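Changelog-adjacent note: as of this version, every example in the card shows the full chain rather than a window. The one below runs 419 residues end to end.
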Amino acid sequence: MNTELVPARAAKLPNSLLALTLSLSVCANVAAITLNPGDIIVADENAFGNVGAIFKVDPACGPLPRPQEIISSSGGFVDPEWVVLDADGTLLVSDLNARAIYRVNPALPYPANQTTVSSGQYFVQPRGIALRSDGSILVADNNAVGGGGAIIRVDPSASPFANQTIFAQDGPFVDPAALALRANGDVFVVDWHAGDAGKAAVIQVDSTGMQKTIRFEWDSLAGIASDSAGRVLLTDPMGKKVLRVNPASADPVSGVWQEYEILSEAGLLAQPWGITTDDAGQIFITDYDALPVGGAKGAVIKIDPATCTQAPISWGGEFESPAGILIVPTPDSDGDGVPNGDDACPGTPPGAIVDFDGCSIDQLVPCAGPAAGGVWKNHGKYVSSVAKAAQDFLNAGLITEDQKDQIVGAAAESKCGKK
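Full-length structure tokens:
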């Protein structure tokens, strides 16, 4: 971890909260761990004497602070920092000092539930991790490729010792450390020192690996995520802040983000790190140093984006440096990133770009006729409807200008709506 990002320790836990830690209960099935929608998964790189662990926190289990249930520890772990959920219900974990990505099966006992997905090769300090729609894994490594950092693509179907390729490198990269995947295949990357005067920056990398700096003035950044409206959420450890940016505010020429807002500042926050959202849009963060109790430190804190209020969920216990975090989503049968209960267009084909209601352009504007029913009046009406939908996707930041032109061009060359 870059020590320049580490602020002073937080104040000790108030007595009212300290008393609650004494009521810690365990809601665990020791034979196997089941991941349910709403469960909080946390990667702690220093738990159990710097061995590291993956924990499950059930937000509805027991009194506060919610207990931490061990999913995996020991084994190959050295510093497990970030974690994502695969479609098969297993967890993919980046371990920066093991120089590896591990797959963890929560249904098996640990440490036997760890298998190596990728190791060595380009990895020097693999950190941020994201899963693409094609099943490949993108990993931010802040010291790869001669120390300049890179985004590395991992093919999990190949040998774990020969399955890496460089997705993006050089350009503005200095210390790429965390990333968030967009629906259109673009990646937003947090780089600790790529900004002006060594400040933190966010860099956009498109689906081909091309890079563009889109904001570069923050003193520090750590975690990054997107909310259901496509806005970008960021943690600022040194500023003790949670930030929100609307990519639609970007300058039309430079692409640089023009506006951001502070959703939450200080309060319980001491060194906010990982960030994610649940199905209801509530924000959850890990904080390295919040709410210290005895020898333990770190916490999971919920932030209501409507009121900006903070609520501690889990602290003390076995936490030492909680970093990566995810919320187990409700089922998403078509894998488009929109839970079944919110999906207006079920059955989206694999890999299709969808809007925030889970609808692709082909589903919004079917070739056979308008989605509301009937047939197209003529071919021109079909093409104009596709053009409008594509413009809406572009305005929402879901596709690029080139992608929009390709979609409209394909519609114009189609036979849809022709008599």
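Structural remarks: Confidence is low (pLDDT under 50) at residues 1-30.
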